[in-house]
Amino acid sequence: QQASLASAQAAAANSTEDGEKRVAFCYKRGIKISPQKLNEAAKLVRKMHISDALINMEIREKKPAKLVKEALKSAFANAVNNHGMDADKLFVAECFVGKGRHLKRIRMHGMGKSAMMKKYRSHLTVKLEESETVEAKTKVVRPLLERPISVRKGRAQQ
């Protein structure tokens, strides 16, 4: 009886009254970067344990990785402090980028001509969930462009 009571309490702690899993979100709106660039970093952390995702973004020095890391930290803080979720069971259920409102500016060219220039904005959404099955397994891989050319082309270094 105690085992069934403990499993019922664990299930109740893992879900709301409606039987759905508890989730935590972070929304970053109007980020000053193009959606394509931000999505390159966002797709690296999808379906990852939160600690793996933070480590993965920590080792990258690019601006999109820094922005995704900030959103992950914010969603993690929301999950632990506001929703009382277990920090060891959190994983990134969704991490997606939306197109924000872009600003139109004039770019001057030679001989009195001009053109329209767009300054892009993005929206970033991070959704964290609790899961019993997802475990932290840190696997750090250097990005392809930072590797030596001989490794990129598939040849072993000699």
List the helices and strands and how they pair.
Blueprint: H1 2-14, E1 23-31, H2 35-42, H3 50-58, H4 63-82, E2 90-99, E3 103-108, E4 114-119, E5 122-130, H5 149-152
Antiparallel strand pairs: 1-5, 2-5, 3-4
Helix pairs in contact: 2-4, 3-4
Account of the 3D structure:
- It comes from Tetraselmis chuii.
- Belongs to the universal ribosomal protein uL22 family.
- Pfam families: Ribosomal_L22.
- This protein is of the alpha+beta class and 158 residues long.
- The chain has one domain (21-152): Alpha-Beta Complex (Ribosomal Protein L22, Chain A).
- 34% of the residues lie in helices and 25% in strands.
- The protein has helices at 2-14, 35-42, 50-58, 63-82, 149-152; strands at 23-31, 90-99, 103-108, 114-119, 122-130.
- The strands form two sheets. It has a three-stranded antiparallel sheet with strand order 1-5-2.
- A hairpin with a 5-residue loop joins strand 3 and strand 4 (114-119).
- Helix 2 packs across helix 4 (63-82) and helix 3 packs antiparallel against helix 4 (63-82).
- The longest helix has 20 residues, at 63-82.
- The termini are far apart.
- Mean pLDDT is 84; it is low at 1-13.
Task: Summarize the entry for a quick read.
With 158 residues, this protein is of the alpha+beta class. The protein has five helices and five strands; from the N terminus they run αβαααββββα.
